[in-house]
Design a protein that fits this description.
With 435 residues, the chain is α/β, with parallel strands linked by helices. It contains 21 helices and seven strands. Helix content is 51%, strand content 7%. Helix 1 (2-35) crosses helix 4 (67-80). It binds 2-acetamido-2-deoxy-beta-D-glucopyranose (NAG) (3 copies). Its main location: Golgi.
Length: 435
């Protein structure tokens, strides 16, 4: 009994000490912040001076992981982005996997207008940098890097992302940000530096002629925006992002976008033909080796998606009012309704710009009037895979992704006839609990 008490007390005291340390560090950085106007880099004085003296050891260490670098970064964070949790500012993370329509759904936020800072797949650079010679990604390193980069970006801090861009940006300027043009925030007037004749930019703005991306300008613009949204297909487990949900500077809303794994596989076999050539061969042979690494990978993907959704739907305290599950099939059939729901969930006004973009780019105008032909057309698009994916392959997906299909309400097919019978819908009406 006594030992128990002692242990509790020691534990409590330790907690208090840790808490105190934290306070000291934040106060120190607050002080630093006070001396600086926001967004100006630290001048070589005080702590930062001390840090600069270690410049040599930084560079020789080379790796981005040293605790010192992190601490320096933290201090810079505080000084540059002394963001108070402003009431009403929302941070949306649209999480998906490839071929689930996430670019399209991302547009719902990209088109929001002047109040939104939207980023399209910033983690592309991180994944690329962490790709091993074997072709896989260093999962341990990726989990941490994805989380930290996302967290910084939601605070309008690009410094960690910059460190993953190859070649490294010079003076916070890069001509190589992946798909810059897919994020209207990065092609706005205020983020558009003067066009440089002859400079090659693979990803350049389409709406106006801009020079290479200046991250300082991007950060300044981001800080002015009321809301921020990032879409990513690279986060494997929702739980890895828990620190973001618990960050008092953020009000994060996770939207997980899912799609029938059979449709995803069919789509990937077309889009990433080289990577999926085994599947294509199996589809032709009508025989899938169930213990193959490719099949295990498919199972792993399905399990990750399902486990993320299970946590989200269970609504643990850290996710309360922060998680929404959306099926691609519902968005394809009822885009306006689902977009409205997403905005309501995010707590952001649904703007006329978004509405008109959806009207222009979907069949939504007929959605409300329930015109049968358009509804039918949309579902045809959604169910096209049923005529390209061989039944044998569908069976394998059902086998290894069974629990995932079940959770999201995708019906199993038991025969080739059922697979290709258009009169049978494979999408159950399902309302997911979220609030
Ligand atoms: C830091 O180190 C780099 C490379 O060694 C050098 O070019 C740079 O001038 C140094 N900066 C400072 C402030 O010492
Ligand atoms: C993966 O990253 C971790 C953490 O950064 C590192 O310790 C490990 O050596 C890396 N593994 C490989 C295979 O590169
Ligand atoms: C990048 O933008 C910042 C902020 O507007 C500006 O001070 C800086 O000079 C720009 N850099 C270049 C090389 O134009």
């Amino acid at each position: 009994m006594r030992i128990k008490y002692t242990i509790s007390i020691i534990f409590f005291v330790a907690l208090v000490i840790i808490e105190k340390e934290n306070n000291i560090i934040s106060r120190m950085s607050d002080k630093l912040t006070l001396k600086q106007t926001p967004q100006t880099p630290l001048q070589p004085s005080g702590l930062s001076h001390m840090l600069l003296k270690h410049n040599g050891s930084f560079t020789s260490l080379g790796k981005r992981n040293s605790a010192f670098t992190l601490m320096k970064r933290r201090l810079e964070d505080y000084s540059q982005h002394q963001e108070v949790v402003t009431t009403g500012r929302k941070h949306i993370l649209l999480l998906a996997t490839t071929r689930t329509g996430s670019s399209f759904v991302g547009e719902f936020f990209n088109q929001q207008g002047d109040n939104m800072f939207y980023l399209f797949e910033p983690l592309w650079h991180v994944e690329k940098m962490l790709t091993l010679e074997t072709g896989g990604t260093n999962a341990t390193a990726a989990v941490k890097a994805y989380r930290d980069v996302l967290q910084q970006l939601l605070l309008c801090d690009f410094s960690l992302l910059e460190s993953f861009i190859d070649p490294l940006p010079v003076d916070h300027i890069t001509p190589a940000l992946f798909r810059r043009e897919s994020s209207s925030s990065l092609c706005e007037e205020s983020v558009c530096s003067p066009f440089i004749k002859g400079a090659f930019e693979r990803y350049h703005c389409r709406t106006r002629r801009c020079g290479p991306l200046n991250f300082t300008m991007a950060s300044e613009s981001c800080l002015q925006k009321e809301h921020r949204a990032i879409k990513s297909v690279r986060v494997r487990q929702l739980e890895n992002l828990r620190p973001l949900a618990e960050d008092p500077r953020l009000d994060v809303k996770f939207i997980q976008l899912v799609r029938d794994p059979r449709a995803v596989l069919a789509s990937r076999m077309v889009a990433f033909a080289a990577k999926y050539k085994n599947w294509k061969q199996w589809a032709m042979d009508g025989d899938v080796p169930i213990d193959d690494g490719e099949v295990r990978k498919l199972k792993g993907n399905c399990d990750n998606i399902r486990m993320s959704a299970e946590i989200g739907l269970r609504q643990p305290p850290w996710l309360r009012r922060r998680y929404m599950l959306v099926r691609y099939e519902d968005i394809a059939r009822f885009p306006m309704r689902k977009a409205t729901e997403m905005y309501r969930f995010a707590g952001i006004p649904f703007t006329p710009q978004v509405k008109s973009w959806i009207l222009k780019n979907t069949q939504a105008s007929k959605e409300a009037s329930g015109v049968y032909s358009t509804q039918k057309k949309s579902s045809e698009q959604v169910e096209k895979w049923r005529f390209t994916l061989p039944f044998k392959v569908a069976q394998v997906v059902q086998k290894v992704c069974g629990p995932t299909l079940k959770l999201f309400g995708y019906k199993f097919v038991s025969s080739e006839e059922m697979l290709t019978d258009k009169s049978i819908s494979l999408i159950e009406d399902k309302v997911f609990n979220f609030s």
